Structures are given as C-alpha cells and as structure tokens.
Amino acid sequence: MLDLLIIGGGPSGINVAISAKRAGLNYLVVEKGVIANSLYHFPVNMTFFSTSLKLEIQDTPFISHQDKPTRSEALEYYRRLVQSFRLNLKLYEEVLRMEPATEGYRVTTDKGEYATRNVVVATGFYDTPRLMDIPGEDLPKVRHYYDDPHVYIGQKVLVVGAANSACDAALECWRKGAEVTMAIRGDAIYDRVKYWIKPDIENRINEGSIKAYFNTTTEEIRPHEVVLGTPDGPLVLENDFVLAMTGYQPNYELFERLGLPIQEDDSCKPVFDPNTLETSLPGVYMAGVACAGRETSKLFIENTRDHGQIIVDGILQNATSTVGH
Ligand SMILES: Cc1cc2nc3c(=O)[nH]c(=O)nc-3n(C[C@H](O)[C@H](O)[C@H](O)COP(=O)(O)OP(=O)(O)OC[C@H]3O[C@@H](n4cnc5c(N)ncnc54)[C@H](O)[C@@H]3O)c2cc1C
C-alpha cells in the first residue's frame, strides 16, 4: 500500500515527489514517457519565457547559460533532480484508470495495479492538441506539435494560430527558408506573445516576409492545398505542410477514467479546493498546469511551484486527523 501515487513525471510530479520523499511518505511517480516527457517534446530550439530562477524548485539551483533556460537545460535540470533526490519513478508506464478501494484507490496501468491511499494527478495539458475539426486535419502533413525547422526548408508552410507557439514556429521556419503563411482567427497577434517575439513577428508580417491572413479560418486541408475562409471569401493556397498551433488541453478522457468531476463552466477545471488542491474525491489531488483545465495560459511551472508542499501537508494533516479518530 503506497501513501501516494503521482500520475505524471513532469516538473509538477517531480516537485510533489521531492516533498513526499522529504516527508518520509511511501510514494511512487508513474510516467508514461521519459522524465519531463512534455518538455522533451517541446520544440528542439525553444527557450523558456521564465528565467531559470523562477523555474527552480525545492531550493535546488537551476543553472543556465543565459537568464532564460533552453529546453535541453531544463531537461538536464529535471534529470538531475530525479537522480540527486533518488526519486522513485516508473517510466514508460501509463495510468489507465482508477477505482475507489476499501482503503484508498486501486490504480491500473498498462503494466500492473497499485493500491494507494492518495493520488496526485499531475498530467499537464500537452498530450491533447485542440483540434480544428476540419476536413483533412488527419493528413500526415498536418502537425499539431512543432519540433525542428529543418523539416520545412523550402516548403510552403501554413501556420495556424497567433499565440506564442505559432509565432515561434512561423519565425523559425521563415528564417530557415520556408515560405510561411499564417491564418489568424482574430485581427491581431495575441497580446500575450512574449515581448521579444511580438515586435519581431509583427515586423516580418508588415514587411511582407511572412504573409498573414487576419480574421481568417482554416476551412479545409487537401494533400497539396489549403482552403482559407477570409473576409473576402474562400482562398485556395498551394501548401506542403500545416503547423496547427491551436493550443492544447488536459486529457479529459483520462480524467473520466479516473472518475474526476469537472466544473461545468468554460474553464472545465477539475473540481478541487484551491487551498488544499484536494478534489471532490477524498485523497485525490490536482497538481501543476492540469489544475487550469482549458485555461492553459493561466498556470505555469512558475506559479505552481508551491503545489508539492501544499499537497504533502494536506496528506499529512489528513493522516493525523484519521489517526486521531
Ligand atoms: C511550448 C511551451 C513553453 C512553455 N514555457 C514555459 C515557461 O517558460 N515557464 C513556465 O513556467 N511554464 C512554461 N510552460 C508551461 C508549463 O511549464 C509546462 O506546460 C510544464 O510542462 C507543466 O508542468 P506539469 O508537470 O504540470 O505538466 P507536464 O510537464 O505536461 O507533465 C505531465 C506529465 O504527465 C505525463 N502523463 C500524462 N498522462 C499520463 C498517464 N495517463 N500516465 C502516466 N503519465 C502521464 C506526461 O507524459 C507528462 O510527462 C510552457 C508550455 C509550453 C507548451
């Protein structure tokens, strides 16, 4: 019987695990991929918008060459945390579902079953892209994850979206020699785009290096063309690749298999107490960016760094009050 099973070995799961270890709890992290699996799948050349100081957890310094760390420096940091704290992690093991048991919960993975008193859901949002739901979205040339600009050199690339990922991808591909067009639903690049990226993308659009269609939707993707819905009517463009940078959301199918109740508003957040992070299922806690539901731009590593300690304090408190009865 574990005290605590943590689903997800990203920054938040690792943070909870260190707090649990420090408190002497019998914990296990179950991660379906590699350590910090989401970060591993971020664009290869990406730089975080946070400084390494703001990403530091558990009093452990995060050293990077510049103020803002790169993806590979972040991967190095999380690997070092796992190894230095000798965390108890099972990698390449996916949690499939969870049921209440006589005491605590029974958690089923693709490799076995665990009995645990408490569960932490730290599954992030990066596994489930928000789909456009248009014909042709399932063609192999359509990518919901942008990785490396090398792939797109000399190609006609449509970037869908106007947030950070879309602007980063558009600029990087254009700089490596892709012919980049952007389809943007609103009438401007989003205000929340990083302050050093926004003027860059706006200037490239204004000078015509990157062609942007505003107030425009992507209507259909064909093997060698895309159809845009512009204010002047439908427009057919030649196209080799589509980078659909339309955002991500938590895996609601998984939440359902875990039995997590979801708020009935636009945020679609799991129901939890914001002070303790305990959900309406006793002993089941939310951690990290998964807490934000669909409002994925509200929570980051930066502003969820206290989750580990809050959850472990709650578990210890609940254990003491149970013994007291
Ligand atoms: C491109 C990008 C840049 C970002 N830059 C910053 C930044 O500069 N600063 C900042 O503070 N935040 C940033 N964020 C936001 C946030 O930091 C990241 O989303 C971060 O990964 C969140 O950490 P997490 O541990 O909550 O979730 P994740 O890192 O997503 O971790 C969730 C883990 O759960 C695992 N998992 C999911 N389902 C299962 C399952 N069924 N069984 C087992 N394991 C499972 C996943 O494989 C993953 O490893 C960025 C996000 C993106 C997408």
UniProtKB/TrEMBL annotation:
Pfam families: Pyr_redox_3. The keyword Zinc does not apply. It comes from the Bacteria. One of its GO terms (molecular function) is flavin adenine dinucleotide binding. Keywords: Oxidoreductase. This is Uncharacterized protein.
